[in-house]
Amino acid sequence: MLWLCISLPQLPLEALRCQEKEEAIVVTLCEGNRRWVICCNEVAERAGLAVGMNYTMALAIENRIVMFERKTQAECAALERLAAWGYQFSSTVVVGEVPLEMQRSRTACIWLEIGASLKLFGGFRRLIERLENQLDCLHYTYRLGIAPTLEAAALLARTSIRVAITSTAALYARIRNLPVSRLALTHDIVQQLQMVGIVTIGAALELPRAAVAKRFGLETSHYFDRLVGALPDPRPTYRLPEHYEATFDFGFEVTSTEALLFPVRRMLHEFSGFLLGRDTATQRFRLTFVHREHPPTEINVGLSTPERSTERFFALVREQFQRLSLPSPTCELRLTANEFTSPTALQTDALNGALQQAEEVTHTLDRIAARLGEDRVYGLKVTADHRPEASWTATAVREKNASLEFPERPLWLLPQPQPLQNSALAALSGRAERIEAGWWSDEDVQRDYFILHTSSGADLWVYRDLQNDSWYLHGFWS
Amino acid sequence: MDRAATLEQLARLCRSNHSGDATLAIEPSGTVELDAVLPGGGWQSGTIVELMSADIGIGELRLLMPTLARITAHERHVALISPPFIPFAPALFQQGIRLERLVVIRADKPADALWALEQTLRCGSFGAALGWPAMLKDRDIRRLQLAAEAGRSTGFLYRSPTAASEASPAAVRLQLRADAEGHLRIDILKCRGARSGMSVRSPRLRAEPDSSLASC
To answer: Is a pLDDT exceeding 90 seen at residue A377?
Structure first.
């Protein structure tokens, strides 16, 4: 087993929002009767704020801070989404827990077993490159660690040691000299260790386990064993769900639709990762905007071909966003999809120009349909019926057409035949095309069609209804 | 020459220098008389063509049929955006158009129709897009022009006959009317790269009338 740990030190903040802002932002947590800063952005750090600071003190240093209450639920949702995304790199994904108490040494993380995937992705470098490319799109601050045990991978990630360690022997050599404060232990235990002169991890690991268990609890001794691989570390692996349902809980209300585009983009990236992991694609998904005081708003996104590209999804969502008016601010976003199709059409060959072009057409038409409505974009088809109004039909774009023979027909047809008042029409004679059809249905038709050449130079397609002897205009020879 | 037009010309010069010899393709109009006056011998891709027809039913749409048929035969698409009537499939089929490559788009708002025109022109898979805009600003035409260049497509805009008296940045502007013998007469109001003010006759484009009537 070789584990890759993705550690997310800024998750309390980044689970709530994902765009960079010019203002100082902190996430705080109440412990006892005090409020503590548990996460702050770069702007806040530059202003002199730090994690572990009392919020009152933080305000004294910088009074223009945006403060968010910590929301573990949002962090759990974010980890869940990330796990589904991570499935594209590994079929064994472990979701770490969100640390509940205020502790620097623990950060939320997920693990991917990459020993089995290395070959598939073409080695460490390729796999990491690809993973980091995708992670950057999600706008999370992350650190990676690779080690044979879960705890060691997490330790390396927290310590920012970007070396892939593949054996327990190499692991020990690498972590031996690190300070004990890096271990995922409570502050008290770390202090006690330091007080008895145990400063490095190496020294701590050399202590007899029985003594460790007696002094610091069985849990600590087990932690040491799991860290070096002396004890197995069985944890439930993430199971990819049948249906995709992801939530983004903001913990506060977002008023502008523009600002919603950032979380939507992240969610679509994660969704696309999920589709890749399942090796599938979708033609339909739904975004739900949850409001505090109104029923949720939904937008459905439809695609004419199965798709799994973030950019395609985003282009269509953005199109709908332009026409979207939300009744009130949004506090939560949901992305759901439950119909998946095999991505056969996705294997576009660079040499196969025709297929490539077909893709471009569907992209453009999907975008137009997203804005104007799906029934507003259609193709035309001829149908075997003598009645002009029934000899054509709207159809799905690019549907193959039957080859049917008709007498010469005008390019424009009127949606409704228009009655003609001109009595002089009665004098029309010459070659008429008799159309009698539809007697089997209610729309019985008996008409004589003529091409009428007007003095202004226009040619009209007119007919005399044989049933009531009236004249109608039905088309133009444009 | 106003500032906008000068800038446009400069921009075009820069672009043409960039692309070097890879000039935009020419699509013959199918009407020998018209091809003779159009620079390059046909519709130039990457341009906007305005057609101002005096009346409905004089063959103003048939004029484009050979071009549209050729575009669809060459695996490219044609878009009809908010046409004023039903584009009659049997007739289009008779004109040689491969219907599976024809797309009809209906937009309620003029702004949406313009947007759809721009999207299809820019796409690269559409050889031509036809529109029937009610109102057009110079700025709109320039936008469409850029989209057509990007997508190597031709935009055909059917405009009201009164638009003929207004200036427009479109590359080609044609006024269409029926002459005394019932043929379609094409007055070239403007044609970039050729002499304007010419008039050509497009014979046999119209249906054979069964009857004619003095007053209608």
So the answer is: yes
